[in-house]
């Protein structure tokens, strides 16, 4: 009888499958371990989001959103980018003829067809420098892009870094124009989700239509005023 009374005063604790201890005790141990490591509340919440993938493998941890997360229709299509590229090629050809072309004509020299001749190397340098310098210092716009109102943007950077510009405009364009077959690298712009060509994929960039952004921002301002 005494044993029954004693058991009624002190009911057996519910067992947890983890270590055979009470759940509250187990959670207290976890929290105390966090306190010993001096985790802040913000750090604990961040860990909770990241560690969900281990608790529920099918549910991936929340990924940070890209800086420039535009809707698909904001990205410039193949044809408008092609027209801008043609304008740039015309300008580059004009600069090449005015500079190295004039020197060769005045000297009575022939440019020749050798791919690694002086004329070809200088022409290549002008071609690459045009895209690299204007894209970096003119906020992602060459002259052709300015005319057609489009701009290069990065998905990870607010301002295009030298690394991004060099990957896209130096390495990417050199490979894409070196042999005619590599021009096929521009074709993904037609069907890719974010209108990216081969160099865009490596640089994590794309091209957006500026008027679309202006229209969106103006609409948002009007909506807030209403």
Structure explained in plain terms:
There is one protein chain. By secondary structure, this protein is mostly helical. It has 2 domains: 2-55, no CATH class; 72-225, no CATH class. The protein has helices spanning 2-9, 23-36, 41-50, 52-55, 78-107, 118-137, 143-148, 162-178, 188-191, 198-203, 210-225; strands at 150-154, 205-209. Strands 1-2 form a two-stranded antiparallel sheet. Helix 5 (78-107) packs across helix 6 and helix 6 (118-137) packs antiparallel against helix 8 (162-178). The N and C termini lie far apart (77 Å). The model is unreliable at 1-19 (pLDDT under 50).
Q: What is the fold's blueprint, element by element?
A:
Elements: H1 2-9, H2 23-36, H3 41-50, H4 52-55, H5 78-107, H6 118-137, H7 143-148, E1 150-154, H8 162-178, H9 188-191, H10 198-203, E2 205-209, H11 210-225
Antiparallel strand pairs: 1-2
